[in-house]
Design goal:
The protein has 23 helices and 16 strands. By secondary structure, it is of the alpha+beta class. It is elongated and about 105 Å long.
């Protein structure tokens, strides 16, 4: 018997199947695909959440692609393989720069993956196994999550399924020897027909390298499977080795440009060095971390799943209830008992190989790095259930099988539908009800920004300033992708978070303005007076943000002591500078700046406490928590400066010098008085302070 082909009479029968069974099967396939589409699109831009930073970073790369940037491997966002990014560029070009445009790419890839999994498993095992796997993947939280978030990892199982579908077609094709005797033309045609699946398989294997980091484990899977074929299917493979070699050669040729790019530019994979601790230790001879990760990785299916809230409901395994766990484990046992058949061996080799990226990295089990195992994990579910469904017929005499089927079939159907419904309800509850309200989910998926965007869209405000933690890189795009209104002018600041240099605030006086401070961002005590709305404004507070609306008339005047920094702005003065401070204390004060023109160049403020006798810097502050690229003319920027005074500072009078510089080049910005009557210099004496003990 052919080791590659299905052996069940129910599967291999060539007799025409009853039309009602074909229609029923097709109807179930359509139903599960529609249900999967629902789970992947329901509230896709809702749930009170925004986009996580990784999604925004991938959109930024896709946006650059739309504007002419191309690469085999993008260095941004810790290094990114390109296929998903090019797809996202197309999606956002068609749908728009919004949450749906960003995430529809994943929906599209996820639905293609479901179809590819069904097609591959139907060819490799049976329609029943394919249908059960499709049903499980349509509602399981693991694939549902990765079919909704705008990240690239789901492209790996798609390419792998397409590749193995064609490979299996090539390996199982019947190349009857009688065709070779009919002439060289027919022989050449037959050869080309038998080679074609291997060509396509090689093409998709090669493309897999351009999907996600875990594709680095694919060669392990292919090498292990080839060794298996050489040991257990040598006779069947005798006239297929050449085609298999061509398949792998095509894959190597396609993947080679990316491989060379990464080899010659190792810094592109910065993220790898952050998570490769267990592998690095193993290469030095210490395998403890890897040995600890092995049971964690294999336990993710039935025991304890990924505990990272951004990727899963914490610790929820792939199969969260006993029935599906039992079916999965039973499928594993069946596959192990039939390891001499290539399709069962492949299923186990596939899962084991694609768990390697999680085993050799930190944070096991990791649902992202193990996505390559997804198709065969749910195949085992179908394998176990298929064997159980046939088991009564194996032990009951033929005359009683039909009667038994009539009794058991309705019971089995009701039971399976109940299990399916329980799992669907569990996924819905965990993902759509519990997960969005988890504090870490609220933080990672920027729920505060989602609430602010909704509030701005409901207003007619044109100018706002918003607090953010990544206001120089990701925050502006994060909020604009959430906004329906694209005409709003946004300034950014950090009002005093732990990662700020002290805190900043942006206000303006010549027209109404609104300030939003997300709930996750603390406000420096030095800004309390600045946020007082008094009689010319109003404030509003909810769980996600503070909103301050001002309609005050008049503007702060420019005093003769103001300093004009070329191409940057005006230093209006300083507040809260004490005259005396003890050594060991912290000097805190604010400076007020006014933007003159839009500033496209980055600027930082430096403040030096100088010992005038020695010319030595005793304490210093560096930073600007309101990026200049978002300043608008006549904006007023308050910046908090924090200078810890060393405990061993000698008593005496010290000078406070201030200036601006370009953080990219280090060049200081020249300044002078507002009347241009003084010579240009690169710093300004802000005042003096007495240090005491």
């Amino acid at each position: 018997m052919n080791l590659f082909t299905r052996h069940s009479s129910l599967v291999t029968s060539r007799a025409p199947r009853p039309t009602i069974l074909v229609i029923s099967h097709l109807s179930l396939v359509i139903f599960f695909l529609l249900l999967a589409f629902f789970f992947r699109t329901y509230q896709l831009a809702g749930l009170g959440l925004g986009l996580e930073h990784d999604e925004v970073a991938e959109w930024q790369i896709a946006n650059n692609i739309r504007h002419g940037e191309n690469a085999l491997f993008f260095k941004e966002a810790y290094g990114q393989e390109p296929i998903f990014l090019y797809l996202m560029a197309g999606s956002t070009a068609l749908i728009g720069d919004n949450v749906i445009g960003v995430r529809f790419t994943s929906v599209f890839v996820a639905m293609l993956t479901l179809a590819a999994v069904y097609r591959m498993l139907r060819r490799m095992f049976s329609p029943f196994v394919a249908l059960i796997a499709l049903a499980g993947m349509s509602i399981a939280l693991w694939p549902v999550f990765w079919g909704r978030v705008g990240l690239r990892a789901m492209t790996l199982p798609l390419m792998m399924c397409l590749a193995f579908d064609f490979l299996w077609r090539g390996l199982t094709a019947d190349r009857g020897s009688e065709t070779r005797a009919n002439g060289s033309l027919i022989h050449r045609f037959t050869e080309s027909q038998s080679l074609r699946p291997f060509i396509f398989a090689g093409f998709f294997f090669g493309l897999s390298a351009y999907t996600y980091l875990s594709s680095r484990a694919l060669p392990i899977l292919l090498i292990a499977f080839v060794i298996y074929l050489a040991l257990f299917a040598r006779d069947r493979m005798r006239d297929r080795w050449r085609n298999l070699f061509i398949c792998f050669a095509i894959a190597i040729v396609i993947a080679l440009p990316l491989a060379l790019t990464i080899i010659t530019n190792p810094d592109l994979q910065f993220r790898v060095s952050e998570v490769s601790g267990p592998l690095d230790q193993a290469l030095k001879g210490n395998t403890n971390a890897i040995m600890q990760n092995i049971p964690l990785a294999f336990g993710m299916f039935t025991d304890r799943g990924d505990n990272t809230v951004r990727d899963n409901w914490p610790d929820r395994p792939v199969f969260p209830e006993p029935i599906s766990q039992t079916l999965f484990l039973f499928g594993f046992v069946i596959a192990l008992s039939k390891f001499n058949q290539p399709r069962y061996a492949l299923s186990l080799i596939w899962i084991g190989s694609m768990l390697v990226p999680s085993i050799v990295t930190s944070g096991a089990p990791n649902f992202t790095r193990t996505l390559g195992a997804l198709p065969m994990v749910f195949a085992l579910l179908g394998i176990g259930l298929e064997w159980l469904s046939m088991w009564p017929l194996r032990i009951i005499a033929m005359p009683y099988q039909q009667k038994l089927s009539r009794v058991l079939a309705p019971i089995a159907i009701v039971f399976l539908l109940s299990v399916f419904a329980i799992n669907a309800a569990s996924t819905f509850d965990d993902y759509f009800n519990k997960w969005p309200n988890h504090p870490e989910t609220q933080f990672v998926f920027q729920a505060d920004f989602a609430a602010i965007a909704k509030d701005i869209d409901a207003s007619n405000v044109m100018d706002v300033s918003v607090g953010g933690l990544s206001n120089d890189t990701l925050d502006d795009d994060s909020l604009r992708l959430l906004l329906q209104r694209k005409d709003v002018r946004i300034r950014w600041f950090d009002s005093g978070s732990p990662i700020s240099s002290g805190g900043a605030l942006i206000v303006w006086y010549h027209k109404p303005h609104t300030i939003y401070i997300p709930s996750i961002i603390p406000v420096s005590p030095l800004f309390q007076d600045d946020l007082e709305v008094g009689k010319c404004g109003r404030s509003y507070f909810n769980a996600h943000f503070q909103r301050y609306e001002y309609e005050c008339n008049g503007t702060p005047g420019v005093t003769p002591g103001a300093r004009l920094f070329e191409d940057s702005g005006i230093l209006l003065g300083a507040n809260d500078i004490p005259t005396v401070i003890p050594a060991g204390d912290t000097l805190r004060f604010t400076t007020m700046w006014r933007a003159v023109d839009p500033i496209v160049y980055p600027r930082h403020i430096f403040v030096h406490l100088i010992d005038p006798n020695a010319g030595r810097v005793v304490a210093q502050h560096d930073g600007l928590d309101a990026p200049t690229k978002y300043w608008q003319p006549n904006d007023y920027i308050s910046q908090v400066h924090v200078l810890p005074i060393p405990i061993d500072t000698a008593p005496g009078s010290y000078e406070i010098w201030i200036g601006l510089y370009d953080p990219l080049s280090g060049r200081r910005i020249l300044q002078t008085d507002i009347a241009h009557s003084e010579a240009l210099s690169d710093q300004y004496l802000l005042g003096t302070i007495q240090v005491t003990h």
